[in-house]
Amino acid sequence: MAKNERDLQKITQLMSDALCNTYFAGYSFDTFFILIFDRYFMTDFPNCNLPSTLEFPSILKLNLLGKWWIHANEEWNNKLPSLQSSEMFDFEEPLQAFKLAALRWYGKSEVCSVLLKNEVLEIIFKNGWKINVSGEPVQGESWILRGNDNESVWSVTCEGGEYFIT
Fold this sequence. Notes:
With 166 residues, this protein is an alpha+beta fold. It contains three helices and eleven strands.
């Protein structure tokens, strides 16, 4: 059963505990992007301080159902006009896919910090990259973090700036 959580500090801590010390393992795309984070790989590094996050699933998926961007919003918006083409319906998705592929192979793609401020989820990686996910209302959920399979009993959902924990 989902619980509506209003304490942003609690949500931020939960998201931090779940995502920190995972690495960005890849993504999938159908009608929206799904980011995949894995913590198995991290146990191969003896200097990695694994917090007590073992109660979280080893593989987490972040469904991005609303607006999201990489690095600062202004920087992202400045890149988009250069991609506009009369043949392309949505020119933002190819840039998002390119950047996610680059993040996957760039190295040091471990999550080191998670912040939640002004209805934006900010995921910061050790290599300096940053993914920002808006909590602005969309048709339904803005984003969902859950375990590897859709049957996972653990999830955090943002729906138009409201947060639900299962």
